[in-house]
Structure formats: structure tokens, C-alpha cells
Specification:
mainly alpha; 69 residues; single chain; binds zinc ion; 1 helix; Erythroid Transcription Factor GATA-1, Chain A
């Protein structure tokens, strides 16, 4: 039972942190939605075609050696 749990007011725009507008969920405005979309598209289309240039060899799966906890 969490008494402190707002219904929708907890939703914040992941771009600017403003309260989310229902019309533009999960963003506060079309602008932020576009920004996020651009980021997303950039992340997708920004993938270089020369992918197999650096990582040519197979890496060991367990590269987490010396994990400070
Ligand atoms: Zn925003």
C-alpha cells in the first residue's frame, strides 16, 4: 500500500522532464516526441555500414573480470 502514488502525474517527459501531456504520451509535447524519434532514428540509421572493421575477432562472452561491487 503506497499512499504516495500519483496516478499519472508521476509520468515525466523523458526528454525535458516536464509533466507528460496525454495527447503526446509519453512526452510532453510534439517537439519532444520528435526529438526522441530523431534520436531513435539516428541510433538506428547511424549504424555504420563498416561494422566488421573493428570487431573482427570473436570476443569471449565473459568480459566482466574484476567487477567492483
Ligand atoms: Zn518534453
Amino acid at each position: 500500500m503506497n499512499a504516495i502514488e500519483p496516478r499519472q502525474t508521476a509520468a515525466r517527459c523523458p526528454i525535458c522532464g516536464k509533466p507528460v501531456e496525454p495527447a503526446f504520451r509519453p512526452f510532453c509535447s510534439k517537439r519532444c516526441a520528435d526529438i526522441d524519434l530523431n534520436r531513435w532514428l539516428s541510433g538506428v540509421y547511424a549504424v555504420p555500414a563498416k561494422e566488421d572493421e573493428d570487431e573482427d575477432g570473436a570476443r569471449p562472452a565473459d568480459s566482466r573480470e574484476g567487477d567492483p561491487s
